[in-house]
């Protein structure tokens, strides 16, 4: 067995709102490295696989009834470096492509699906102009697929089952927002996995459900076959598994990987359960260091007092200084609530404690008029202050009472990681936005910023937290993300160097409820934000798309005319995608009658009250006597490809839309 064992320094450092301090808390973590996948498997599994040949599965394509007629062979390719390499298009999570998207002229719709089992397709990225990569899920397995998209018919060139949690399983710990990423230069695929018991079923390697898993990273180097198509070879999969005895003592699966992301130096950043980050540094020539530094947001208490004070002040001052609170509460919040009770499902009302929140606002003046009340109002502070237990306290199930419900008070990571252009990364926990860097001394925090969190968890979300992966705006050295305020969230514009809040915009005030589940796109001094409240899980789904503009050295401002036109635009399935060359943003949505799905294009720079929507592309796959296809994208991001194409992973397969 080709195994190597490394002992790692578990470095735990964090200060809140200031330069990082060194921590005395260290732990030893062991990494097991295998040069290839086969050597990482038990001997009996290796023996069985030696007699098997890798299968590409059984896939077929169908075409829509309303297809146009075009030849992909005559269409020109575009530069590979403009293609998406990760869930949010690039390291900065801009959700913008310079490629042209499909139009309404001579449009063709194609769906690639598994003929043997129901398989749900998820996130997408490109190896090159001709090959797209995705992970598809059945009830039993997750499969990494290479799909050739060079011709008029898509087909799978390579497939391998991988130990990745089913992201639609309620008990999964994986982050569904960035399942893998691709290095555009080397074509290497970086896949976070939670290893479990391997088996061979129907001639294929598969992974059994297990109560014990081991986190790790697979680094896959694809090869080309005789037909010059990309394929997966088990001998070209470098396997790294991580373990920590101290973390293991905290219970089963206390240390599981959620996502992986590269910074601009090529270092691999990983998020784990229980608020832990890891960095595997790139040394040189595609070689990685023999150690990983880990950073635990909850182990170092140096940030505790500052964060508690600043977060309490943030909430309290926001409540105390808000203008026209009576009008905002009675004429705005209550009016909308009672006018549209279906907006809040029973579960959401239970979590939100709306009446308590409303009463606090209504009675605000009587409680805040005097300095004595301001300083000593315990009754008010219990609602506007986040009560935290010391994170070093050794007790299980650490929760606190908030709005009459139990919420987690330790830091967890539920989003993906975004990179900046200064070798830093940006991470959102349920308590703050953090800027971190990796040096020879390990991981350290440059700054940490608390944000408004009502701690009201939208139905379907695991944690009450910001749901946005930060977007780095390179042109202005800014970070854009959304908080978790109630009943509307806010778009936050942050100075990336200092962590100072530059601007704040309340979102979607025309609708009851709002959320932004990675709904931010940026291109050419324009931010587009989609309302994802509901995410298709609640009985009520809010609507709305908003746009914000700026100019060089100017502040951001809302485009009020444009925003009014998009008040009723449904954008809850995934991040709006901007095509900068077309000057359009695209949203994937259900039709008004909820019977079909469509891709809708909206002109970014022109507001036309007669044509708020540029065009919509709606495939018709209905065939008499056959089961209806489900084109729900299940909140997975879609991506723009070469030759005026767009790809969307759906419940029934991979949908390709292409036009002249």
How would you describe this protein?
The structure is a single chain. Helices cover 13% and strands 34% of the residues. The protein folds into two domains: 59-298 and 411-658, Methylamine Dehydrogenase, Chain H (7 Propeller), CATH 2.130.10; 304-407, no CATH class. The strands form twelve sheets. A six-stranded antiparallel β-sheet has the order 1-2-17-14-11-10. The protein has a five-stranded antiparallel β-sheet with strand order 3-5-44-43-42, with no helix packed on it. The radius of gyration is 25 Å and the shape is globular. A hairpin with a 2-residue loop joins strand 24 (399-402) and strand 25 (405-408). The protein is mostly beta strands and 660 residues long. Residues 1-26, 319-338, 340-362, 367-394 and 400-407 have low confidence and may be disordered.
């Amino acid at each position: 067995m080709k195994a190597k064992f490394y002992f790692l320094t578990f470095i735990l450092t964090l200060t809140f709102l200031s330069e990082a301090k060194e921590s005395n808390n260290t732990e030893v973590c062991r990494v097991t490295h295998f040069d290839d996948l086969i050597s990482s498997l038990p001997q009996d599994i290796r023996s069985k696989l030696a007699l098997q040949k890798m299968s590409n599965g059984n896939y077929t394509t169908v075409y829509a009834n309303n297809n146009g007629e075009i030849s992909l062979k005559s269409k020109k390719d575009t530069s590979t470096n403009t293609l998406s390499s990760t869930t949010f298009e690039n390291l900065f999570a801009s959700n913008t492509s310079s490629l042209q998207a499909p139009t309404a002229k001579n449009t063709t719709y194609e769906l690639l699906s598994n003929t043997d089992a129901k398989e749900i397709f998820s996130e997408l990225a490109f190896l090159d102009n001709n090959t797209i990569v995705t992970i598809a899920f059945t009830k039993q397995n997750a499969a990494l697929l290479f799909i050739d998209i060079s011709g008029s018919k898509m087909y799978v060139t390579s497939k391998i089952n991988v130990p990745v949690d089913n992201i639609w399983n309620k008990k999964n710990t994986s982050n569904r927002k960035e399942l893998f990423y691709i290095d555009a230069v080397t074509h290497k695929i970086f896949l976070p996995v939670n290893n479990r018991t391997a088996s061979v079923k129907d001639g294929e390697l598969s992974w059994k459900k297990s109560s014990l898993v081991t986190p790790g990273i697979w680094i896959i180097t694809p090869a080309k076959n005789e037909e010059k198509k990309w394929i997966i070879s088990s001998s070209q999969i470098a396997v790294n598994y991580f373990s920590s005895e101290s973390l293991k003592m905290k219970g089963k699966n206390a240390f599981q990987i959620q996502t992986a992301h590269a910074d601009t130096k090529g270092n691999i950043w990983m998020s784990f359960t229980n608020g832990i980050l890891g960095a595997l540094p790139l040394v040189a020539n595609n070689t990685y260091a023999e150690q990983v530094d880990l950073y635990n947001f909850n182990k170092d208490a140096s940030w505790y007092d500052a964060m508690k004070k600043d977060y309490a002040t943030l909430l309290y001052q926001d409540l105390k200084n808000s203008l026209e609170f009576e009008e905002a509460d009675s004429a705005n919040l209550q009016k909308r609530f009672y006018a549209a009770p279906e907006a809040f499902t029973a579960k959401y009302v239970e979590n939100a404690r709306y009446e308590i929140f409303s009463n606090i606002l209504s009675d605000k003046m009587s409680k805040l008029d005097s300095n004595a009340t301001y300083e000593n109002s315990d009754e008010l502070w219990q609602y506007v202050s986040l009560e935290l237990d010391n994170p070093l306290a050794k007790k299980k199930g650490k929760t606190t009472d908030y709005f009459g419900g139990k919420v987690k008070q330790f830091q967890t990571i539920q989003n993906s990681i975004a990179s900046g252009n200064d070798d830093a990364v940006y991470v959102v926990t349920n308590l703050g936005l953090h800027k971190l860097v990796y040096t020879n001394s390990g991981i350290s925090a440059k700054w940490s910023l608390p944000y408004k969190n009502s701690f009201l968890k939208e139905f379907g979300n695991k944690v009450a937290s910001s749901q946005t992966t930060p977007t780095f705006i390179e042109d202005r050295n800014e970070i854009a993300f959304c908080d978790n305020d109630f009943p509307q969230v806010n778009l936050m514009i942050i100075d990336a160097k200092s962590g100072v809040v530059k601007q704040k915009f309340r979102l979607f005030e025309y609708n009851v409820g709002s959320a932004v589940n990675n709904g931010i796109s940026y291109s050419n001094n324009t931010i587009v934000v989609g309302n994802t409240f509901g995410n298709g899980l609640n009985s009520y789904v809010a609507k709305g798309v908003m746009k914000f503009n700026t100019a060089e050295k100017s502040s951001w401002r809302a485009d009020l005319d444009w925003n009014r036109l998009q008040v009723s635009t449904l954008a809850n399935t995934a991040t709006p995608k901007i095509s900068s060359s077309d000057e359009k943003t695209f949203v994937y949505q259900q039709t008004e009658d909820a019977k079909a799905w469509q891709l809708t294009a909206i002109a970014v720079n022109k507001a036309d009250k007669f044509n708020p929507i540029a065009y919509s592309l709606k495939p018709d796959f209905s065939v008499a006597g056959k089961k209806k296809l489900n084109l729900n994208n299940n909140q997975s991001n879609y991506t723009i490809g070469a030759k005026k194409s767009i790809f969307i992973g759906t419940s029934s397969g991979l949908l390709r839309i292409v036009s002249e």
